[in-house]
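[Meeting: bench + compute handoff]

Bench side (C.D.) handed over the final construct sequence. Compute side (W.E.) agreed to return the predicted structure before the next meeting so the bench team could plan truncations. Sequence as handed over:
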Amino acid sequence: MSTNMELSSEARVKLSDDYTERLWEEVERRGGVKEVSQSLGHSRSKMYNWKNKNSFLPIDFVTEIAGDELGDEIKAFKGKSRSNPIRNPSLPLDLSDELLCRIEFSVSINENGTPMYMTNDLGNLRRFQTLLDELGEVPYNIYTRDSRFQLNFPGYLYTLFQEISHGADKTALIDEKGNVNNGEIYVEGTRIAEEDYPNEIYNRKKKLKLALSKEKNEVVREMLSKEAKRAERTLDSVT
């Protein structure tokens, strides 16, 4: 799949140094900034700024000059605004149903237009981080508010996610919306048959509650052991 099919026309990209040099050489071959700006409808002053300041370049300008099979030449991308870039992206983006479902279930937008992933479970938070990290070096900030975790990530990514259709994902559904009651998992009042359980549940509270109810002692011991090791590392970092 071509790169620009993954990134919207609003995207700004940073190319490798070598590819950037070749791109501007191609502009010169076509008659220079003056000729290209007229033929492609870009502002001449903006093009000089892009070139002289080594700026992030609009994806449509890059593809008009160099084509859309950019491969590993994109070293970072961001939205049109002054947002923090996603560096070393894995392109074309492989957006899993799990990630998109978690966003649908648990992401809201604050008054500043920033997407916020909210959860009261550390296992959910860590899984969401892992899914974002698979896309590249995504800039995000994590806060703790009233025993809840909040992860803020770039608005451009959220906009991109909204443009992509996705299927259902059992793991995200149970982690984000499920409840454990009397050893059974329910989602919005509907009981989930055990044969329909996902291979992995990342929500630590639900996983522990389910293991206790099923008397799966090995799972309980493993989780408690991990918690003890985390607590020990925390104490070591403080003392």
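W.E. noted at the follow-up: The chain has three domains: 3-87, 97-162, 176-238. C.D. will use this when planning the next construct.
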